[in-house]
Amino acid sequence: xxxxxxxxxxxxxxxxxxxxxxxxxxxxxxxxxxxxxxxxxxxxxxxxxxxxxxxxxxxxxxxxxxxxxxxxxxxxxxxxxxxxxxxxxxxxxxxxxxxxxxxxxxxxxxxxxxxxxxxxxxxxxxxxxxxxxxxxxxxxxxxxxxxxxxxxxxxxxxxxxxxxxxxxxxxxxxxxxxxxxxxxxxxxxxxxxxxxxxxxxxxxxxxxxxxxxxxxxxxxxxxxxxxxxxxxxxxxxxxxxxxxxxxxxxxxxxxxxxxxxxxxxxxxx
Length: 269
Known about the structure:
- By secondary structure, the chain is of the alpha+beta class.
- It is built from ten helices and nine strands.
- It has helices at about 15-25, 35-40, 45-60, 75-85, 90-105, 145-150, 160-165, 180-195, 230-235, 240-260; strands at about 35, 60-65, 70-75, 110-115, 120-125, 140, 195-200, 205-215, 220-230.
- The longest helix has 18 residues, at about 240-260.
- The protein is globular and about 60 Å long.
- Mean pLDDT is about 85; it is low at about 1-5 and about 265-269.
C-alpha cells in the first residue's frame, strides 16, 4: 500500500468552496443579487444555488430583500470581518494611539494596510467635527492616488512599482493623481526623504492628509498612520502644520516600537 499523502486538492470541500465563491460575488457596486444571477455567474444549477443561499441565510451570511427574491450580505459577514480586524496586533496596539492623536489634533485618524493595489482602512477614530468622512473600517482606497497609499509604497524602487503596476499606466482619480509609475515614484521618493507624507487636495479636493509609515521588527512597512484634514481648517489657519506632522510622526514611531522596530535614527528612514 502506498503511504503517499493525497494531493492537497483532494482535501477541498466543494460545497464550502462554492459557498465562499458565492459570497465573493457581492461587492459595493452589486450589493444585491438574485438566485438566478448567482447560478449563472457560478455556473451552477439553480437548485444547488438555492441550497447554498438557504444555508448561508440560516447562518446569517446572507439575507433576503425585496420580497424575498433578492439577496444581500448579512450581518455575520460584518461580525466575521470585525473579529478578524480585532485579532490583528496592529489594531490592538494602534487604537489607543489613534485615539490620542485624535484628542491632540481634533482630527480623524486612520490606520491602513496594503492589499494588492489598495490601501485598506483597518482602524479609524473619528473626530467630533461637522466634516463627514466617507472613509470607514474596511474602505479600500487606491494606493497610488491617496496619501496613505503613497506612504505604504514609500520603500519601493522603480522596479518594484513596475512589478506592482506592469502596465505602467495608472487610473486618474483627481487632477493630482500620477498617471505613470515614474510620476508616482517621484512623489513617494519625496515622502521617503521626509519620512512622512503631507498633501492637500491629493485625492479629494477639499481634504488634506498627513501620514507616516509603520514598521515592524524587520524594518518593513506594514501600515500607515494618518490624519484627515478638512481643507477649510487649513485655510482658516487653525492648524500648526509642523506641530501636526510631529504629532503624527511621534505616534507612528511609538506604534512601530511596539511592533519591535528600533532605529538609531528613525527620522532618516
